[in-house]
Amino acid sequence: MLASAGLAVARFHYRGVGNSAMVPASLEAFTRDALDATLAVRGSASVSRSAFLGVGVGALVAAGALQSYPEAPLALWKPVLDGARFFRDFFRARLVAATRLGGAARATTDELLARLANDGQVDVMGFTVSAELYESLTASGVTELLPRQVRSGLLQPFRGSRAAGAERLAEECRTWGCPVDVQPIKLPEDPWFIPDGAEAAAAVMAIEQELMATTRDWLLRLW
Fold it and tell me: Which residue positions in the chain have pLDDT lower than 50?
């Protein structure tokens, strides 16, 4: 959608993801990847200005990358504003998912954290979480990562407690002189537990279209 509007776009996977060779995963490493992708686009296309889009935990990465491009607009979809809270929700989601399937989780959260400390990594709902990634994210928040220079921001959180956190972040940014627009969205249910099926998929697709169109129109107004 952005490309069809005439904007150069880079969507990338972090090093170590997919078929990449294994490399240490951390917020700092992910931020370097985002900056490398930005440099690649600026070097290969007629690009004089950049914007960053962070999705979920990618909000922390985008906020960190913004320190190198403080003039860039920042859009955050369903943003994770606090890494420690994210992992609390993540581990809770694992327990709820196991209950939904009619069983019990194989290990408690405390047991998972102990295994993480002892083994250096742990599998949670099909995702491998390394101790380095866990420590770097739980110590990070969007507010602390954002530079204080004036820029434009668009926050599109889920409604409810997550939207309240986004509103607090927006208010703080405005005290820095940064105009931030908050536009909460609503999913059929909590995003951790959206069931499979055509009806749910159609609802999510409609929300994604709304997210994309809002971001496109916001960015074109700025530029």
Answer: none
